[in-house]
Amino acid sequence: MNILMASSEALPFSKTGGLADVVYALSKEIVSKSKEDTMSVVSPFYGSINKDKYRFKLLYTFDVKMNWRNIHTEIFHTMYEGIDYYLVKNDGYFARNGGLYGYYDDGERYAYFSLAVIELIKLLPYKIDIVHVHDWQVGMIPCLLKVRYANDSVLSKVKSVLTIHNPLFKGYFGVGSLWDFYGVGDDLFYSGKIRLDGQVSTLKAGIWYADKITTVSPTHAYELKTPDGSKGLWYDLILRQNDFVGILNGMDYKEFNPLHDKLIYQNYGKKNFVEGKRKNKLEFCKEFDLKEGRPLYSVVSRLSDQKGLDLINAMAEFVVSNGGNFALVGSGEHYAEDYFNNLHMRYLHNVTVYIGYNNEMAHKCYAASDFFIMPSAFEPCGLGQMIAQRYGTLPIVRRTGGLKDSVTPYSYDINNYQTADGFGFDNYSVGDALSACAKSLMVYNSRPKEFNKLRQNALKADHSWTKPSKEYLALYKSLAGK
After folding, report:
1. Which of 23, 137, 350, 420 could make a disulfide contact with 10, Cβ separation 3.0–4.6 Å?
2. How far, in Å, CA of 329 to CA of 53, rounded?
3. Do residues 328 and 358 make contact, with C-beta atoms less than 8 angstroms apart?
4. Both ends of the chain: CA-CA distance in Å?
């Protein structure tokens, strides 16, 4: 079975968020475990890609026709970790200096990319059984396969899977884009199948026309079928619920491994984590001038409202007011950056803040911290809580999306410290967030045996790609009739 991933970003060549990690890690896991199945990834050839680092070979040259435009296209190929990567090169669309997204013509750029993906499928010397598309940028591909290319002897046989990573971004465009970008009629819009909020939505097009739909955790799949949690997609996903499933993402166990991590102060594993984490916290406090001998809470995050900024603010104040230290690595909303810089100035020896992203400091935070704060307003899957557990750091999460699926919260009532691996709360409220913080402080200060057992449980949590890859393979095979 031959699977082609189509994504606007993919490691190791491009990344703005978790999408790039998923495409790469899932593909790598499947090719490493299955001899019968091939994985290919197609992504744009962005100008930021280091052309000297990888061996790219020019494979195909053709024009993509988009209404009046005939767009010169080059397809470059390289093999990486057993994965065939095909990169679509057109410098007018993708060789820009301002990042991957956020341009006035993003709709046109990714419409072109989608059409180039379809041309590539026709040119490849082997048959593609499944095309797996990710998010709004390529959401029209399943629609094109079933509408524009319904009578094509090759393309009409290709099955499609859509994965929704972030439902906030729906690919909104005017109805004129259907013909101008994709060469299909506006009857698709007036039928309602790709219309959302009075506009064309490429994400909704994917929902309606993909053979199967997935999202990145079981709880998020449930939330997307509710009016409050769906970001406007609940009705369409309920209509497709028999073809819709949530599969919890995994994480990269090679990059995040306290036993071999070269960025942390001292390596440790399941057998010596108590001493290993003690030394990492001690060195972290020395480097960042924090008072020693206190519980350390950390945040490594984009500073956006989605991440629960008001709750993070309250939790940080609570921690430092009750004998703890707080560390943050992140950037985003200016008011949040100003708040945390101010917090540092008020608590010079209890708070350290890095505005931006510092990979080394992030790894040190995961290894040194006792607790990791992640009270998201919504979180389709989340990665930070899984990384924290990998380092024996206990997440404090709001139980939404993948946070609910990946963290078993400690409970007073059932005294479940033998199985719990973090702390959690349900309601999005300051009171509940602070209650979870207070519970974590109590366990840290008064119940050392339970605290160490929780950390041990976190270290043992399995967030590898083994189980998710098997679920995706089963989904692919159900479509391919294998």
Report:
1. 23
2. 29
3. no
4. 8
* Domains along the chain with CATH numbers: 2-250+466-480 (3.40.50.2000), 273-460 (3.40.50.2000)
Write down the residue that tokens 């994400």 correspond to: 203
Helical H segments across 193-323, by residue range: 202-209, 218-223, 234-239, 273-287, 309-321
Question: 3-class DSSP state for residue 403?
Answer: helix
The H-assigned helical ranges of 133-262 are: 141-146, 177-182, 187-190, 202-209, 218-223, 234-239
Q: What is the pLDDT of residue 62?
A: 98
Supply the pLDDT for residue 452.
97
Structure tokens that stand for 314 in this block:
């309250």
How far from 403 is each of 188, 374, 400, 408, CA to CA, in Å? Answer: 37, 9, 6, 9
pLDDT along the chain (482 residues), means of 10: 97 92 95 90 95 93 96 97 97 93 96 98 96 98 97 95 96 96 95 95 98 98 93 95 97 93 97 98 98 97 95 98 97 96 97 95 98 97 97 98 98 90 98 98 97 98 96 95 74
Tell me the H-state helices in 347-415: 359-368, 384-390, 401-406
**What distance in Å separates the CA atoms of residue 282 and residue 277, rounded to the nearest whole number?**
8
**Six-digit token pair at 437?**
């913080």
Partners of 422 in the beta sheet? Answer: 409
Task: Specify the DSSP element, H or E, that contains 28.
Answer: helix 18-33
Residue 170: which residues within 8 A CB-CB, separation 6 or more?
Answer: 136, 196, 201, 202, 203, 204, 231, 232, 233
CA distance linking residue 51 with residue 78, whole number of Å: 11
Q: What span, in angstroms and rounded, lies between the C-alpha atoms of 377 and 235?
A: 21
Closest C-alpha to 111, from 14, 240, 6: 6
Cα–Cα distance for residue pair 265/291, rounded to 1 Å? 18
Bridge partners (DSSP) of residue 74 are 61, 89
CA distances from 278 to 157, 196, 314, 338 (A): 57, 53, 26, 31
Kindly tell me the number of DSSP H helices and DSSP E strands found in the chain.
18, 18
